[in-house]
Amino acid sequence: DLLITALARSADRPALHLGDVVLTGAEMRAAISRFQQALASVGVGQGSAVAMLSKNRPEVLISMGATMVAGCRNTALNPMGSLSDHLYISTDAEIETLIFDPRHFEDRAAELREQVPTLENLFSLGPSSVGTDILALSEEFTEQRLVSAPVDIEDTSSIVYTGGTTGKPKGVMGSFRSGAALNQIQMAEWQWPEQPRFLVCTPLSHAGAAFFVPTLLRGGCLYVLPHFDPALVLEAIEKHRINATMLVPTMIYMLLDHPDFDSRDLSSLETLFYGASAMSPSRLREGIERLGPVFFQFYGQSECGMTISVLRKEEHLPDDPSRLASCGRPVPWLDVRLLDDDLNEVPQGELGEICVRGPLVMKGYLNKPEETAEALRGGWLHTGDVARADKNGFMTIVDRKKDMIVTGGFNVFPREIEDVISSHPAVASVAVVGVPDAKWGEAVKACVVL
After folding, report:
1. How far is CA 44 from CA 48, 54, 123, in A?
2. What is the pLDDT of residues 373-399, one digit of tens each?
3. What stretch of H or E contains 108?
4. d(Cα 264, Cα 272) in Å, to the nearest integer?
5. pLDDT tens digits for 255-280?
6. Which residues contact 188 (CB under 8 A, 6 or more apart)?
7. Which among 11, 36, 161, 224 counts the fewest CB atoms within 10 Å?
8. pTM score of the predicted model
């Protein structure tokens, strides 16, 4: 319903730029309608298990829109994933329909067809010797009014695989409720430009698509690059007067270090959303000095998508390293607390695990009842992230609970040591790990890139 509303709002203006392709909301809506009808003609609809394997191209959003409106259960396969990754996910999620880009993944699609027992339909985004050309099939249909499937709010809308530190990836079951809650929080709490000109350079099948609906609801337009390249990103910001984008910290470092950075006009940029991993406070300060107060941080995880807490633009205090190391304050749409092992809230300033209740939390892990029970113990999602909160409610993650180093009876969190070392101007990046030690049990070791 949110997608249908967003497309209607953008009906008469450009909603998507990708290479030479420019589509209005009405054109996207028509393409989504035809695509959905093509899927329905071969029995793919509400509850169908569908996977997408493609690099960035316009048809990815068309396909995702069609499967969303149809009420399918969607799973994205990482374009950089190995055959074993794709086999495991497709088999575990019991994928029935694979939609793939034949220019890059025709051979992989054939391998999956041979080895995934539940896989019945292969649809290619264009001519292919392996699957049915879904684009050609969709051209046989005429546009119909988009009507969302009569799903229940707790039905599973997506299965996202999260790579844990141990064992096989777990399939995080998201509901239509959690998907709607993410959009609601993004619209209410995130700092968007008045009319977003949003640059996507991350995979559309993953994080990139999370900005599709909010951008259109805001009356904006998506500009999509085929892949991340710092020179292309800098060029696109200048050329298209981009005023918002989303990057992970590693990408930001690459932009700041690129020789074109100072020669490009980046003055149009109003909001740079960043997340997915911690950012070095010293590099964040450098970014603020060179780009201005445009940084907006979001913190979440697959089990509670993207926005457990946010650090707003004006809350980035460049002269306060502790603030720059923070992941912000919890959004008011969720119940977020720092709890001890007995589910008691810890005193202000003490270490506790970030735990969450609310509409954004996952349903559970697919086919993993024990792991689900552990993650949702006591009615809380246990994120595994250990943090402390200051008197104003800003949380600072010290590390993953499982990464704690016990040395000589003391608990040491690698992230805290990394933050100190990375503040030195000679350090580009650092990782701290525990190593066996005869005297201390574990010793603290830092691996540094100058």
Report:
1. 6, 19, 11
2. 999 999 999 999 999 999 999 999 887
3. helix 102-115
4. 16
5. 999 999 999 999 999 999 999 877 88
6. 333
7. 11
8. 0.88
